[in-house]
Amino acid sequence: MDHPISDDPKSPLLPLHHDPDPIQQSQSFLSGLKSTLTLKTLFVLLGPLLCTIICLCVKLDGPVASRNMLAVLVWVFAWWFTEAVPMPITSMSPLFLFPLFGIASADDVAHSYMDDVIALVLGSFILALAVEHYNIHRRLALNITMLFCGDPLNPPLLLLGICATTAFVSMWMHNVAAAVIMMPVATGILQRFPVGPDRSVAVSKFCRAVVLGVIYSTAIGGMSTLTGTGVNLILVGMWKSYFPEAEPISFSTWFFFGFPLALLIFLALWVILCCLYCSRNSSQALSGYLDKAHLKRELEMLGPMVFAEKMVLAVFSMLIVLWMTRSITDDIPGWGALFKGRAGDGTVSVMMATLLFIIPNKKQKGEKLMDWNKCKKLPWNIILLLGAGFAIADGVRTSGLADILSKALDFLEAVPYFAIAPAVCLISSTITEFTSNNSTTTLVVPLLIQIAKIMHVNPLLLMVPGAIGAQFSFLLPTGTPSNIVGFTTGHIEIQDMIKTGLPLKIAGIAVLSLLMPTLGAYVFGTNEPVQ
Asked: Global pTM?
């Protein structure tokens, strides 16, 4: 619609703009400034600011690259700790920070983000998604729970069954994935119990025991295999990077040490939970709500195993066999010798995952066991975090920063041999309560390697306790995402975690202190020098 034209000859031809109110202008500016200067924005600026301060003010007794590496390390960890930038994006920052600060070339950094260890993770994650998609984990949990339920109901035995199932699932997939999969199974069992004022003390305690058992069992189960947690993979990747001429840590090598370690800590967990949460009258209080008939009905609702489920299980079982037999002993070299050492654990992991995209599921014509749409849930954040850990470890080593930092730790030469493992494990397990397990490992292990050189001991004597200790985040909900999964159920509180986690942490350090000089010396050869 056209605006009417004024007949007044003095009226302006163009509309006049009134000068804005200066008070409104200042208020608008202040509100814009306030929305920009949030705590998160300050955390974003904290990384580059600390990096600049170190570059300008800190002088190290070494090459310039070592000072730059320290500055970049502080920048990355500042963003990781504050989560000012999403963790996956922070994990990619070495790809541009390392070349810009002269620490490593772009190609060298990029290689850290895709090697055999990353391939191992990718393949195992795809297989874990297949297990989740076909509800195999739920069927497994119900069968084992029925087996351990007892008649009449035996709460400690049922708790053992739930925790053992969780630990077993966590052995073959990432801790967080195992917790996310198993927590609904556990809470599904707990939903049969009353809530509110009608809930007895015995029922409330058992619910706490189950949730605590699941979150701690995921951590303990993950310790036993390389694929169970990113920490073990970071350790193996760093060992391969720092000591390329030494015998690599294979899946089977780690399992021969990790499984007995995890088993003893798991038994300690079960005893602690039974002592704290399973009273003598709990069987009578629980039997009215939970029995084998309930579990059997749920299992019947799943129906018989179909072809797709059997094939996924077969592929997974074949992958485990291949992992275990790639490298057995010096006398029995395993199938890896056929390929002259060129094939790794990641090779078979990706190969078996590929089979899932070839084998039909026999549900619909032309449909395979897996398709790429089902893989959209792949945890790329974990994969990028692993890559960042490997890149940082390489940068700390090649820049000379590790040598400089280790000089300040000469006093550790006086530490008695048998006190090494508990001391290192205690330090690592304390740091990991306030940072992620992977971040702790990435920070601690390169320093432990240099300390081992100063002490003239096998680096694995320090590296393994450091990595295992980083997985003892048992006290706080924020210690690891698995803890958060359990905490959000509403069944547990922080005091429950501290009451259970503290004796579990002490038991874990004690078990590691016992096994490292004995079984560790046999499996890893820590009594022998590294080539």
From this structure: 0.68
